[in-house]
Amino acid sequence: MKATTAFMAKMLNERPDARYERYRFVAALLAAGSIGSFSSLAGAADGDSASGPSVPALDGGAAGPSADPGADGAGYARATGEVDGEGGRFGIPRLGFTPGFGTGCVNAAVASTAFGEPGVLQLLDTNEGPAKDSGRYAQLSVSGSEIFTDNINREPDGSAENDFILSVAPQLDACSSTGRFRGSLSYQLQGLVYANNSKYNDIYNDVLAKTTLDLIPQRLYLDADTQYGQAVIDPSFSFGSSNAIRPSRNRTSSWVTNISPYLVQSLGAVGQASLRYRYGFSQYGDSDVADSTINAVYLDIVSPPDREPLGYRVKVASQSVDRSGGNEARFWRDFNTDPDVVDPSRREAGRDRTTHFDTASLELDYQVSRSLTALAEGGAETKFNRDGTTDRYGSEFWNAGFRWDSLRNTLEARYGHRFYGATYDVKATHRADRLDTSISYEEQATSQALNALNGRNGLGRGIGSGFGGGNVGGNDLNGPTTSLFDRGVFIEKSVRGNIGFDTALTRTDLNAYRQVREYRQSDDGDETFYGASLTNRYDFTRRMTAIPRVEWQNRDGQGIGGGYDSYEVGASVVRTLSPDALGSVGYQHGWRDGDRQSSDYKENIVTVQFRKSF
């Protein structure tokens, strides 16, 4: 643990100015929880288990303690209107983190490795790791990789340059869910050495940590999270999510943190209330990208369970997002872009501004039967006008629909009206022995700054994602790779679908999405993103697994940068060498075809990798 705390101290001391004093506070807070708790793992009793109270969900207010078991055994919380805590609610944006670990400490630690090299347990179940219980878990691993690429900077044909890259990456995954503390930490230190381009030699840090503290049991809590890594600045130019494959000048360090104390109070026959304050910030190493902060207050009142079949929920949220600094015009000039494409006066006007996202509503639900619940919601929210002005709580909205639950299926659908027109919200899942499917459609008013603060900041997955050469330098097609430049408020309309199919020897996953961004006031045209990925895992022996995959991402936009298509096809073979060691070899071919020919490229990557867990 001394190495981890030393890394934090070193990173914070290297910050160039006084504004980063806030990092010292965040590091101290997380160290008091996560790192301080993990240092006692060696003495944890085998019988330790999570004993925390029911904690309010962070999708705009408290979840409350009441939950009705659904027909399939999944918990349904009336306060959130969600099964198993999935998704957000109409009119209230999600926060950037989720407290507690409903599926157990180990699952939380494994799932937290979204950056860098994913935990072996996340991809393969052949490595059981050390003995674990539901309360505490820690695992240290080290991976070494040799990578060959024939296009280190993803340049167009004729300019490509090959290189051999050596990567060494120790990683710590840990979590605790005992007593008054619940937290998880994933940290990776990656060193890269280039055979032909020693100027690129570097060391990268990736951190993802979450903490929930019970300050006063059943009454006062504190949530905090932080994530540090590298992010793509603007996908209009060639980009990659890996630290190793490095398109020039199109990545920057990104630090996103949220701190949120909240109070839970019983109101007797009225129900249960929660009052939450949230402070968060996102800051970038490139001065061309604007930093942002959020100050928000959320009030939530949920009806008691004995009021069934009729229930209600009162939700009030006021979010103030401040954006400062940044210079998009300067970034584009660095790429020798035609000045007519980016007007400096237009780009730099109003770059420091505050945007308010407010909503107040009353939601009603009526349980028609064990499986069917009628839903209705109405209230007021901020209206974002086309001329750039806003009317706080100046527009009425409403929606109505139903939720249906059965042993294997869930379906929620709503129709309503907001300040920009008719709205729809649909969520559906199907669970079977071998087939799992889900599809969702949702709409929300947001901005790039708010998305970043809510954890959608484009942090890359690092060199080892898709263990064994799968997706080295690849694009994160779990969602669109969007620009970090804030171009105003937009209506985000997203549809996502997933199909997972299991056989005795295989697991196949198909994911697809479509996202439309309709800007309320911007000289840029609207944007549409498409993406799809297909991955198959084939266990052709007990110790050997083949993982082929295909990925595609598209941007269709009429504004800056135009459109593009990017493709990746790859396969890796993973071999279990011992209960705590894996080896792999992988190949990947990628290419990009877009409106900007200077950002088109073709590449081939071969990776040999070894991973050891302790």
Which descriptors apply to this entry?
614 residues; mainly beta; Maltoporin, Chain A; 22-stranded antiparallel β-barrel; three-stranded antiparallel sheet; 25 strands; disordered N terminus
Produce a short descriptive summary.
The chain is mainly beta and 614 residues long. It has helices at residues 2-13, 21-38, 105-111, 120-123, 328-334, 344-348, 448-453; strands spanning 68-69, 75-77, 82-83, 136-149, 163-178, 181-194, 202-216, 220-232, 251-266, 272-284, 291-302, 310-324, 353-367, 372-384, 390-405, 409-418, 421-431, 435-446, 490-502, 506-519, 527-538, 544-557, 564-578, 581-594, 601-613. It has one domain (2-48, 90-211, 218-298, 309-613): Maltoporin, Chain A (Beta Barrel).
Overview of this protein structure:
- With 614 residues, the chain is mostly beta strands.
- It has a single domain, classed as Beta Barrel (Maltoporin, Chain A).
- 10% of the residues lie in helices and 50% in strands.
- The protein has 7 helices and 25 strands.
- The chain has helices spanning 2-13, 21-38, 105-111, 120-123, 328-334, 344-348, 448-453; strands at 68-69, 75-77, 82-83, 136-149, 163-178, 181-194, 202-216, 220-232, 251-266, 272-284, 291-302, 310-324, 353-367, 372-384, 390-405, 409-418, 421-431, 435-446, 490-502, 506-519, 527-538, 544-557, 564-578, 581-594, 601-613.
- Helix 1 packs antiparallel against helix 2 (21-38).
- It is globular and about 70 Å long.
- The relative contact order is 0.13.
- Mean pLDDT is 75; it is low at 1-20, 31-133, 345-349 and 459-477.
